[in-house]
Amino acid sequence: MHIGFIGLGTMGRPMVDKLLARGYTVWVYNRSQPSIDWAVAKGAHALSSPKEVGERASIVMSALPYPETVESVYFGENGVQEGVQKKAPGSDAPIWVDLSTIGPKHAELYAERAREVGAYFLDAPVSGGPMGVQAGTLTVMVGGEREAFLRVRPILESFAEKIVHVGPPGKGSVVKLINNMLVAVHTAALSEAFVLGARGGIDSEVLYELIKASTGHSYMIDRAYPLIKERDFAPRFNIALLHKDVRLALDYAAREGVPLDQVALASQTLVRSLALGLGQDDIAAIIRSLEQMVGVEVKKHSG
């Protein structure tokens, strides 16, 4: 099977690696040449535009940063849709699987525009980060037509463990935004907790071990604290992207008439981090803005 893949960033690279390891023929497009060179060295085939990807592959996958990028890649000039011969949807219809985090309204619109050229568009955001891709343990939340989902599920199994069809177009995006708004709230809260502990003279290792055995523990503490104590803020998932996801969640909640008070507060924390120039750092670096305000640093043996 020939698979097209667009976007060879933090998530796209290990995904392509997994697809190649499964024996798929993969045609790739990316804006930066070094990523193309990497993929070709791994065994992928390079193309010069999304349009060419649409011409070559009946299954196109994308891992991109913003909804506007997704729209441009699929529906812009030299986009994927220009490479598809217009026909009625059927069992052999092209399937476009967007693994990015976009808003539900974007996913609904893109699915409608895909149908106009006889293609399926699945919003299939993922959770687990690049380490989850490498381990094959990602969670994938899929919105779109079920027949298209069933066709691509075996491909998604190349790098994911839990793959769930949530409902029609846009529903995968709803679930992902809910997940990431919790990521933001939990990360902001754990940052405050560990800075308060440091200010109060509690060794961060002791605090971590006690919280881990208590009711305040969360997955995000296990993810963030090891990076915080080592001051390792290399981006696995950066603050700017989390801020984008929280903004999309707030927009969707406003559309549905649901107040998100805690998410709005977490958004303020993210904006403060962006103002300090931390946008490209890992989300664990959210703690740094509070550390600077208080005058402490959370690290190993920080008593």
From TrEMBL:
The keyword Oxidoreductase applies. Keywords: NAD, Oxidoreductase. The active site is at K176. Residues 3-167 form the 6-phosphogluconate dehydrogenase NADP-binding domain. Pfam families: NAD_binding_11, NAD_binding_2. InterPro entries: 6-PGluconate_DH-like_C_sf, 6PGD_dom2, 6PGDH_NADP-bd, HIBADH-like_NADP-bd, HIBADH-related, NAD(P)-bd_dom_sf. It comes from the Bacteria. Residues 170-289 form the 3-hydroxyisobutyrate dehydrogenase-like NAD-binding domain. GO terms for molecular function: NAD binding; NADP binding; oxidoreductase activity. Gene3D superfamilies: N-(1-d-carboxylethyl)-l-norvaline Dehydrogenase, domain 2, NAD(P)-binding Rossmann-like Domain. SUPFAM superfamilies: 6-phosphogluconate dehydrogenase C-terminal domain-like, NAD(P)-binding Rossmann-fold domains. Belongs to the HIBADH-related family. This is 2-hydroxy-3-oxopropionate reductase. It comes from Candidatus Carbonibacillus altaicus.
